[in-house]
């Protein structure tokens, strides 16, 4: 099987590999009846609040139990995240500008959900709830035993086209709590008056209502990053089309050149490490050689040998997702886009003469590529990877010598070493 076919096959099979992956971490649950059970919870990169969690009483145990907010009132993953059961009303109006209602929408529904803890103190606790509709924030008056949504509304004003109206109902809600628990703080009142409906802002206000100078609790796993350097080999092939300045060119053969790379990985969740944004910078080379007729209809003239070398500096942003993810071995698939800045050297030679830097063909100085990538990381340090870039045009045509195009496809394989700088 050709390397590019194998790579594409692996990427197609990735979803099936990922189904068996789990990430059980120490934690505990509290049942509706108030019983605390220590065990292990399958931590995921929850973009929305989970509706169900997977729980094991022992890490090596085979039995996995599923719990919903109807079964438990609380769960915590040690040194990571905490969720609290909530039963009550939640708003269902849209706040996304592309889906806003025409006129005020006060729709809501009764539901039982898990709220994510964002800040906690003796007076209040701040929570968040994100679903397919929007992000919402809730606050609990700990001493009064009440939890309610901090309301934020946005909608188009009827008969006024694209003009929107914003209702920051959460500001007087927070002001009432500030008056109750920290009435002497002028700074707190100023923070509330200028508040936006965002996690860092509301977290700070919650801390100040709790009269806490600092809060060193980690309410969620922060993102992190590491670096890598690497080397490998690139196999390239060129395809010519259109009206070339020479005829009867021989087929392009696959040529090989070195690659060198360096970059940084940004992990959206350091403890889970599944979703990664990678910024990579590469230097790589390729070449092409063909025999062709330069003199049309003159069989007495010798054929030419046309050769060019290509040297590239490539910026390669990419998204990587680890579908098999353990401390010892990680297996990922990735997509991205490459922006290559190329320099070319062209040589034409025959039995009688040779000319360097003869610009017989016109190349683009920069061009885009769209590679698919797969890789294996061992012990969080050594990475083996392969990528295939679909054919990309590196020449848009030169009207002075005829309309032609040159497409380049490439397969790369390499080894990277990962490291951190403390």
From TrEMBL:
<feature type="domain" description="Outer membrane protein beta-barrel">
    <location>
        <begin position="227"/>
        <end position="419"/>
    </location>
</feature>
<dbReference type="Pfam" id="PF13505">
    <property type="entry name" value="OMP_b-brl"/>
</dbReference>
<protein>
    <recommendedName>
        <fullName>Outer membrane protein beta-barrel domain-containing protein</fullName>
    </recommendedName>
</protein>
<keyword id="KW-0732">Signal</keyword>
<dbReference type="InterPro" id="IPR027385">
    <property type="entry name" value="Beta-barrel_OMP"/>
</dbReference>
<feature type="signal peptide">
    <location>
        <begin position="1"/>
        <end position="20"/>
    </location>
</feature>
<dbReference type="InterPro" id="IPR011250">
    <property type="entry name" value="OMP/PagP_B-barrel"/>
</dbReference>
């Amino acid at each position: 099987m050709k390397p590019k076919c194998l790579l594409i096959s692996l990427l197609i099979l990735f979803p099936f590999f990922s189904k068996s992956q789990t990430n059980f971490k120490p934690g505990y649950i509290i049942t509706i009846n108030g019983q605390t059970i220590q065990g292990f919870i399958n931590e995921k990169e929850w973009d929305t609040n989970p509706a169900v969690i997977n729980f094991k009483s022992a890490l090596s145990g085979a039995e996995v139990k599923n719990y919903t907010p109807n079964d438990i009132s609380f769960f915590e993953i040690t040194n990571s995240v905490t969720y609290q059961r909530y039963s009550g009303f939640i708003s269902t109006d849209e706040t996304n500008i592309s889906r806003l209602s025409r006129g005020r929408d006060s729709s809501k529904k009764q539901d039982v959900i898990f709220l994510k803890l964002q800040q906690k103190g003796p007076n209040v606790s701040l929570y968040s709830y994100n679903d397919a509709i929007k992000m919402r924030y809730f606050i609990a008056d700990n001493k009064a035993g009440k939890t309610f949504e901090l309301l934020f509304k946005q909608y188009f004003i009827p008969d006024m086209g694209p003009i929107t109206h914003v209702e920051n109902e959460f500001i007087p809600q927070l002001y009432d709590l500030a008056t109750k628990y920290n009435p002497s703080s002028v700074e707190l009142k100023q923070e509330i008056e200028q508040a936006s409906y965002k996690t860092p802002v509301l977290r700070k206000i919650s801390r100040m209502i709790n009269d806490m100078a600092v809060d060193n609790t980690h309410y969620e796993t922060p993102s992190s990053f590491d670096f890598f350097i690497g080397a490998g080999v690139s196999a390239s092939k060129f395809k010519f089309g259109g009206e070339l300045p020479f005829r009867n060119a021989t087929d392009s053969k696959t040529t090989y050149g070195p690659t060198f790379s360096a970059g940084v990985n940004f992990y959206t969740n350091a403890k889970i490490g599944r979703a990664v944004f990678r910024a990579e910078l590469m230097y790589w080379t390729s070449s092409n050689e063909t025999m062709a007729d330069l003199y049309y209809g003159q069989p007495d003239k010798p054929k030419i040998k046309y050769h060019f070398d290509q040297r590239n500096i490539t910026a390669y942003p990419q998204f990587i997702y680890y579908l098999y993810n353990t401390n010892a071995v990680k297996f990922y698939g990735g997509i991205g886009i490459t922006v290559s800045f190329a320099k070319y050297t062209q040589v034409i030679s025959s039995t009688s003469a040779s000319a360097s830097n003869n610009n017989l063909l016109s190349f683009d100085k920069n061009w885009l590529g769209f590679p698919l990538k797969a890789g294996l990381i061992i012990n969080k340090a050594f990475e083996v990877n392969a990528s295939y870039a679909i054919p990309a045009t590196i020449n848009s045509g030169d009207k002075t010598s005829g309309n032609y195009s040159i497409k380049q496809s490439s397969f790369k394989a390499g080894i990277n070493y990962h490291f951190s700088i403390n």
